[in-house]
Design brief:
Helix content is about 45%, strand content about 15%. The chain has ten helices and six strands. The chain has helices spanning about 1-15, 55-60, 70-85, 115-130, 135, 160-185, 195-200, 205-215, 225-230, 255-260, and strands spanning about 45-50, 90-95, 100-105, 150-155, 230-235, 245-250. A hairpin with a 2-residue loop joins β2 (about 90-95) and β3. It is globular. The structure holds guanosine-5'-triphosphate and magnesium ion (MG). Guanosine-5'-triphosphate binds near residues 58, 68, 71 and 97.
Length: about 270
């Protein structure tokens, strides 16, 4: 009897369920209100994160204008933390306050549940951003908690995936050329923000290159690659290194060369 009592106590403490139907509470029905957000199978999944109110966040933390090398490195560290945790991510691309993660099309991460995937990647990225702050932002105090939004976008084929990343890298180029010219006009040229805005409105990229060169002696092509191209984090081909190694480079992903050199990034594991 004593042994039977002990076994009963042990089992009831473990909330055992294997093969045993637990009695449901009368409140259980509320689960029926949850809707499935399972993503289409066999599609590429991109999770893009973007800093909330980073215009203000950058100001409050005295980020260098237009590019703060340490702040961008911090974003890259956070992205590496995410890639180390989720091996299904083959590649990530970041610029400014955003990062996009590519999850291979045949993955079964969290049963392909969209909100589960986006929220867990978003929260890991955010906590890693805070975790690595002191290391990257030497001598700067984090004044308030940063946050990022996240979304999932599905792409049916490789061309769409490549076009997506081309879109983000082209955006990086357009914004960075504008911002570099804008802040040189303001910080070195001594004109106001509004005057700089007026000067740049209706200019094409050639005009901005010309302003930088003739007025400030800057050849835009010599600006740091991290600023001009953003950051690409990807898994090397060697499978034995897949567990934790990632490469971090500031390279072109619009042209074919990168994808031809790393075909495994867009290939299926299982056929
Ligand atoms: P929401 O994303 O809509 O919440 O607005 P946001 O203020 O984050 O602006 P958005 O995402 O459109 O753009 C990112 C902003 O972050 C830029 O406009 C810059 O103001 C700021 N930012 C990002 N990286 C840097 C940097 O390296 N240096 C500086 N000074 N600012 C940066
Ligand atoms: Mg933002």
């Amino acid at each position: 009897m004593k042994v039977a009592c002990q076994i009963f106590r042990l089992l009831s403490r473990r909330n055992f369920s294997a093969g045993t139907k637990m009695a449901k509470s009368k409140f259980e029905y509320v689960r029926e209100f949850e809707s499935s957000d399972r993503c289409l199978p066999n599609t590429w999944m991109v999770v893009r994160l973007d800093g909330k109110g980073f215009h203000k966040f950058a100001d409050k933390h005295n980020f260098e204008k237009p590019n703060d090398k340490n702040a961008l490195s911090l974003m890259n560290e956070a992205a590496k933390s995410v890639m180390k945790e989720f091996k299904e991510i083959t590649l990530a691309y970041g610029q400014s306050d955003e990062f996009s993660f590519l999850i291979r099309r045949d993955h079964d991460l969290y049963n392909r549940r969209s909100s589960k995937i986006s929220t867990i990647i978003c929260s890991l990225f955010t906590s890693a951003y805070v975790f690595h702050w002191d290391h990257c932002m030497v001598g700067k105090t984090l004044l308030y908690p940063p946050c990022f939004d996240g979304r999932v976008i599905l792409y049916p084929d490789e061309k769409n995936v490549r076009d997506y990343f081309s879109w983000r890298q082209a955006d990086c180029h357009i914004n960075n050329l504008y911002n570099t010219t804008f802040w040189n006009l303001v910080l070195k040229g001594g004109i106001t923000n509004q005057q700089a805005e007026e000067r740049l409105c209706k200019t094409v990229s050639g005009d901005k290159n010309e302003i930088l060169f003739s007025q400030f002696g800057i050849n835009y092509n010599n600006e740091p690659e991290m600023f001009r191209k953003g950051t690409v984090v990807y898994r090397p081909k060697d499978r034995s290194k897949r567990s934790s190694n990632v490469n971090v480079e500031h390279i072109d992903i619009i042209n074919d060369a990168f994808w031809l050199e790393h075909p495994h990034l867009l290939n299926k594991i299982r056929e």
